[in-house]
Amino acid sequence: MAGNYKNFKKDSELLKKNLSALQYQVTQKSGTELPFKNEYWNHHDDGIYVDIVSGEPLFASIHKFDSGVGWPSFYQPIYEQYVCFRKDNELWLSRTEVRSRYADSHLGHVFHDGPAPTGMRYCINSASLRFIKKADLRAEGYGELISLFNDQRK
User: Fold this and answer.
1) Which end of the chain has less neighbouring CB within 10 Å, N or C?
2) Domain boundaries defined on the chain
């Protein structure tokens, strides 16, 4: 896999320098971007979405669906081992927060109201993601993920 995310070391000052204010607020302070006013909510290119902080491969366009909520939604991650879950009781209801494994970036939340085959809806902030086009996967170091697109369900 591309990047050295398994040995990722968080450096707040470096992150503040390299991320936009919104990316920092979302990934490091568990913020939320506005619905329908973010980069990937209506994005339809083939490729993968990686953690903006570490490059961990998180989601693929073939698992993306329009949930109507204004944030990118996926019914499963590429690899379960790169996402972690935490109870989130910040609002008036209990939710399940989704975070990246190595960078510990706040990504969004997961709900049990998604489509088949999983019934899950990973509602993810665009600001926590970087998109890599299918055509660029090999050059970006994610060549082994090209096979995801050989058996598309679209």
Assistant:
1) C
2) 9-151
- Gyration radius of the chain over CA positions: 15
Tell me, what's the pLDDT at 154? 44
Q: What is the DSSP letter of 60?
A: E
Helices (H) and strands (E) counted in the chain, each on its own, are 2, 9
With a pLDDT cut of 90, the percent of the chain lying above it is 80
**For the whole prediction, is pTM greater than 0.85?**
yes
CB atoms within 10 A of CB 65: 12
For residues 69 and 38, the answer to whether their CB atoms sit within 8 Å is no
Q: How confident is the model at residue 11, as a pLDDT?
A: 80
Longest dimension (CA), the chain: 45
Catalytic residues: 123
Residue 115 neighbours by CB under 8 Å, 6+ apart: 65, 75, 121
Question: Which CATH code of 2.40.440.10, 2.170.150.20, 3.40.50.300, 2.40.50.140 fits the domain covering 9-151?
Answer: 2.170.150.20
Residue 131, number of CB atoms within 10 A of its CB: 18
